[in-house]
Hints:
Blueprint: H1 4-35, E1 43-44, E2 59-68, E3 71-79, E4 95-107, E5 110-124, E6 127-132, E7 138-140, E8 149-159, E9 166-173, E10 176-183, E11 185-190, E12 196-200, E13 203-205, H2 207-211, H3 214-226
Antiparallel strand pairs: 1-2, 2-3, 3-4, 4-5, 6-8, 7-8, 8-9, 9-10, 10-13, 11-12
Amino acid sequence: MKNIPFLFLFILFSNCKSDKKEEETVALKEKVIKEIPFVLNVKKIDSTQFPESIKYEGFIKNAVRWKDKLGDNIVVTTETGYHINPKFEHESDGSDAELFAYHFIVSGNKAKQTWKVYDYIADCPVDIVASFVKDTFQVTDLNHNGIAEIWLMYKTICHGDVSPCDMKIIMYEETQKYAMRGENKVQVGVYDNGEKQFIGGKFKFDENFTNGPKVFKEFARKLWNENLMENWEN
Protein backbone atom coordinates (compact mmCIF):
# COMPACT_ATOMS: atom_id res chain seq x y z
CA MET A 1 0.00 0.00 0.00
CA LYS A 2 2.94 2.34 0.64
CA ASN A 3 3.81 2.19 -3.09
CA ILE A 4 0.40 3.49 -4.24
CA PRO A 5 1.23 7.25 -3.93
CA PHE A 6 4.45 6.69 -5.86
CA LEU A 7 2.59 4.74 -8.55
CA PHE A 8 -0.04 7.48 -8.76
CA LEU A 9 2.62 10.18 -9.19
CA PHE A 10 4.38 8.09 -11.85
CA ILE A 11 1.17 7.65 -13.85
CA LEU A 12 0.30 11.35 -13.46
CA PHE A 13 3.78 12.39 -14.58
CA SER A 14 3.64 10.01 -17.55
CA ASN A 15 0.25 11.38 -18.61
CA CYS A 16 1.54 14.96 -18.37
CA LYS A 17 4.53 14.10 -20.55
CA SER A 18 2.22 12.38 -23.04
CA ASP A 19 -0.17 15.37 -23.15
CA LYS A 20 2.75 17.77 -23.60
CA LYS A 21 4.15 15.66 -26.43
CA GLU A 22 0.77 15.61 -28.18
CA GLU A 23 0.46 19.40 -27.81
CA GLU A 24 3.93 19.86 -29.30
CA THR A 25 3.03 17.55 -32.20
CA VAL A 26 -0.18 19.47 -32.91
CA ALA A 27 1.66 22.82 -32.73
CA LEU A 28 4.32 21.51 -35.11
CA LYS A 29 1.68 20.33 -37.58
CA GLU A 30 -0.08 23.71 -37.43
CA LYS A 31 3.24 25.49 -38.01
CA VAL A 32 4.00 23.30 -41.04
CA ILE A 33 0.51 23.92 -42.48
CA LYS A 34 0.92 27.69 -42.06
CA GLU A 35 4.30 27.60 -43.78
CA ILE A 36 3.00 25.71 -46.84
CA PRO A 37 2.53 28.36 -49.57
CA PHE A 38 -0.86 28.69 -51.24
CA VAL A 39 -0.76 27.27 -54.75
CA LEU A 40 -3.34 28.20 -57.38
CA ASN A 41 -4.59 25.22 -59.32
CA VAL A 42 -6.50 26.75 -62.24
CA LYS A 43 -8.27 24.31 -64.55
CA LYS A 44 -9.86 24.96 -67.92
CA ILE A 45 -13.51 23.92 -68.13
CA ASP A 46 -16.29 24.08 -70.70
CA SER A 47 -19.99 24.89 -70.56
CA THR A 48 -20.92 21.25 -69.86
CA GLN A 49 -19.19 21.63 -66.50
CA PHE A 50 -21.05 24.80 -65.49
CA PRO A 51 -23.64 24.77 -62.70
CA GLU A 52 -27.09 25.25 -64.22
CA SER A 53 -27.42 28.67 -62.58
CA ILE A 54 -24.58 30.16 -64.65
CA LYS A 55 -25.92 32.40 -67.40
CA TYR A 56 -23.83 34.26 -69.98
CA GLU A 57 -24.03 36.05 -73.32
CA GLY A 58 -21.80 35.56 -76.33
CA PHE A 59 -19.38 32.82 -77.30
CA ILE A 60 -16.96 31.49 -74.71
CA LYS A 61 -13.32 32.52 -75.08
CA ASN A 62 -12.07 31.37 -71.65
CA ALA A 63 -13.63 29.36 -68.84
CA VAL A 64 -11.63 28.36 -65.76
CA ARG A 65 -12.20 27.11 -62.23
CA TRP A 66 -10.08 27.16 -59.06
CA LYS A 67 -10.32 27.29 -55.27
CA ASP A 68 -8.89 29.98 -53.00
CA LYS A 69 -9.84 31.73 -49.75
CA LEU A 70 -13.00 33.05 -51.39
CA GLY A 71 -14.18 29.52 -52.17
CA ASP A 72 -14.86 27.69 -55.43
CA ASN A 73 -14.39 30.18 -58.30
CA ILE A 74 -15.43 30.17 -61.95
CA VAL A 75 -14.56 32.89 -64.48
CA VAL A 76 -16.01 32.99 -67.98
CA THR A 77 -15.05 35.44 -70.75
CA THR A 78 -17.14 35.75 -73.93
CA GLU A 79 -17.43 37.73 -77.15
CA THR A 80 -20.39 38.21 -79.49
CA GLY A 81 -18.42 39.00 -82.64
CA TYR A 82 -20.20 41.08 -85.31
CA HIS A 83 -23.97 41.04 -84.83
CA ILE A 84 -27.02 43.27 -84.60
CA ASN A 85 -28.30 43.85 -81.07
CA PRO A 86 -31.80 45.38 -81.05
CA LYS A 87 -31.12 47.10 -77.72
CA PHE A 88 -28.87 49.60 -79.56
CA GLU A 89 -30.17 52.40 -81.75
CA HIS A 90 -29.02 51.96 -85.33
CA GLU A 91 -28.93 55.12 -87.43
CA SER A 92 -26.93 53.46 -90.18
CA ASP A 93 -26.26 49.98 -91.52
CA GLY A 94 -23.74 49.50 -88.73
CA SER A 95 -23.10 46.38 -86.70
CA ASP A 96 -22.46 45.79 -83.01
CA ALA A 97 -19.87 43.81 -81.05
CA GLU A 98 -19.83 43.11 -77.32
CA LEU A 99 -17.60 41.36 -74.82
CA PHE A 100 -18.24 40.08 -71.31
CA ALA A 101 -16.42 38.62 -68.32
CA TYR A 102 -18.17 37.00 -65.35
CA HIS A 103 -16.95 35.82 -61.95
CA PHE A 104 -18.94 33.32 -59.90
CA ILE A 105 -18.57 31.71 -56.48
CA VAL A 106 -19.95 28.17 -56.51
CA SER A 107 -21.65 26.56 -53.53
CA GLY A 108 -23.09 23.11 -54.12
CA ASN A 109 -24.58 23.29 -57.60
CA LYS A 110 -25.43 26.99 -57.39
CA ALA A 111 -23.29 29.86 -58.62
CA LYS A 112 -23.48 33.43 -57.36
CA GLN A 113 -22.18 36.18 -59.66
CA THR A 114 -19.87 38.56 -57.81
CA TRP A 115 -18.78 40.85 -60.68
CA LYS A 116 -19.18 41.39 -64.40
CA VAL A 117 -17.15 43.28 -67.02
CA TYR A 118 -18.97 44.54 -70.11
CA ASP A 119 -17.86 46.65 -73.06
CA TYR A 120 -19.04 47.14 -76.63
CA ILE A 121 -19.01 48.98 -79.95
CA ALA A 122 -22.44 49.82 -81.35
CA ASP A 123 -23.76 50.82 -84.79
CA CYS A 124 -20.36 50.77 -86.51
CA PRO A 125 -20.51 50.97 -90.34
CA VAL A 126 -16.82 50.13 -90.81
CA ASP A 127 -14.42 47.76 -89.04
CA ILE A 128 -15.26 46.78 -85.45
CA VAL A 129 -12.85 45.63 -82.79
CA ALA A 130 -14.33 44.47 -79.48
CA SER A 131 -12.28 41.50 -78.40
CA PHE A 132 -9.93 40.15 -75.76
CA VAL A 133 -6.24 40.24 -76.64
CA LYS A 134 -5.09 36.74 -77.46
CA ASP A 135 -3.32 34.77 -74.69
CA THR A 136 -3.52 37.57 -72.10
CA PHE A 137 -6.19 36.13 -69.78
CA GLN A 138 -4.50 35.09 -66.53
CA VAL A 139 -5.27 34.11 -62.94
CA THR A 140 -2.51 34.91 -60.43
CA ASP A 141 -1.78 35.38 -56.74
CA LEU A 142 1.01 37.94 -56.99
CA ASN A 143 0.73 39.26 -53.43
CA HIS A 144 0.51 35.74 -51.95
CA ASN A 145 -2.61 36.39 -49.87
CA GLY A 146 -4.52 33.30 -51.01
CA ILE A 147 -7.00 35.34 -53.09
CA ALA A 148 -6.63 35.15 -56.86
CA GLU A 149 -6.29 38.12 -59.20
CA ILE A 150 -8.10 37.84 -62.54
CA TRP A 151 -6.51 39.70 -65.48
CA LEU A 152 -8.48 40.77 -68.56
CA MET A 153 -7.03 42.67 -71.52
CA TYR A 154 -9.10 43.81 -74.50
CA LYS A 155 -9.38 46.27 -77.39
CA THR A 156 -12.33 48.26 -78.75
CA ILE A 157 -12.68 50.58 -81.72
CA CYS A 158 -14.81 51.47 -84.74
CA HIS A 159 -12.52 52.58 -87.56
CA GLY A 160 -11.96 52.48 -91.27
CA ASP A 161 -8.28 53.36 -91.22
CA VAL A 162 -5.02 52.41 -89.55
CA SER A 163 -5.38 53.93 -86.11
CA PRO A 164 -4.79 52.80 -82.51
CA CYS A 165 -7.45 50.84 -80.66
CA ASP A 166 -8.61 51.75 -77.21
CA MET A 167 -6.99 49.17 -74.97
CA LYS A 168 -7.70 48.25 -71.36
CA ILE A 169 -6.39 45.97 -68.67
CA ILE A 170 -9.01 45.18 -66.05
CA MET A 171 -7.95 43.23 -62.97
CA TYR A 172 -10.12 42.02 -60.13
CA GLU A 173 -9.01 40.83 -56.71
CA GLU A 174 -12.13 39.69 -54.86
CA THR A 175 -14.56 42.55 -55.72
CA GLN A 176 -11.88 45.25 -56.01
CA LYS A 177 -11.46 46.49 -59.58
CA TYR A 178 -8.18 47.82 -60.99
CA ALA A 179 -8.06 49.49 -64.43
CA MET A 180 -5.32 50.51 -66.85
CA ARG A 181 -6.59 52.42 -69.90
CA GLY A 182 -4.94 53.74 -73.05
CA GLU A 183 -4.21 52.87 -76.68
CA ASN A 184 -2.18 50.26 -78.43
CA LYS A 185 0.61 51.31 -80.80
CA VAL A 186 0.49 51.21 -84.61
CA GLN A 187 2.90 52.10 -87.38
CA VAL A 188 1.42 54.81 -89.60
CA GLY A 189 4.34 55.53 -91.90
CA VAL A 190 8.05 56.13 -92.31
CA TYR A 191 9.96 59.40 -91.84
CA ASP A 192 12.24 60.79 -94.56
CA ASN A 193 15.25 59.43 -92.68
CA GLY A 194 13.81 55.90 -92.85
CA GLU A 195 12.74 55.80 -89.22
CA LYS A 196 9.36 54.16 -88.63
CA GLN A 197 6.55 56.43 -87.50
CA PHE A 198 4.21 55.24 -84.74
CA ILE A 199 1.21 56.63 -82.91
CA GLY A 200 -0.51 55.46 -79.73
CA GLY A 201 0.88 53.45 -76.87
CA LYS A 202 0.13 55.71 -73.91
CA PHE A 203 -1.73 54.48 -70.84
CA LYS A 204 -2.96 55.63 -67.46
CA PHE A 205 -3.43 53.71 -64.21
CA ASP A 206 -6.59 54.27 -62.20
CA GLU A 207 -6.40 55.20 -58.51
CA ASN A 208 -6.53 51.59 -57.31
CA PHE A 209 -3.54 50.60 -59.43
CA THR A 210 -1.67 53.78 -58.47
CA ASN A 211 -2.16 53.20 -54.74
CA GLY A 212 -2.12 49.40 -54.87
CA PRO A 213 0.69 46.88 -54.44
CA LYS A 214 3.79 47.50 -56.53
CA VAL A 215 3.69 43.94 -57.84
CA PHE A 216 0.30 44.64 -59.47
CA LYS A 217 1.61 47.69 -61.34
CA GLU A 218 4.74 45.83 -62.47
CA PHE A 219 2.69 42.91 -63.80
CA ALA A 220 0.26 45.26 -65.57
CA ARG A 221 3.09 47.20 -67.25
CA LYS A 222 4.70 43.97 -68.42
CA LEU A 223 1.40 42.69 -69.85
CA TRP A 224 0.81 46.04 -71.57
CA ASN A 225 4.28 46.24 -73.11
CA GLU A 226 4.15 42.64 -74.34
CA ASN A 227 0.92 43.41 -76.22
CA LEU A 228 1.50 47.06 -77.09
CA MET A 229 2.07 46.70 -80.83
CA GLU A 230 -0.95 46.08 -83.04
CA ASN A 231 -1.18 42.47 -84.13
CA TRP A 232 -3.91 42.13 -86.71
CA GLU A 233 -4.36 38.47 -85.74
CA ASN A 234 -5.48 39.45 -82.20
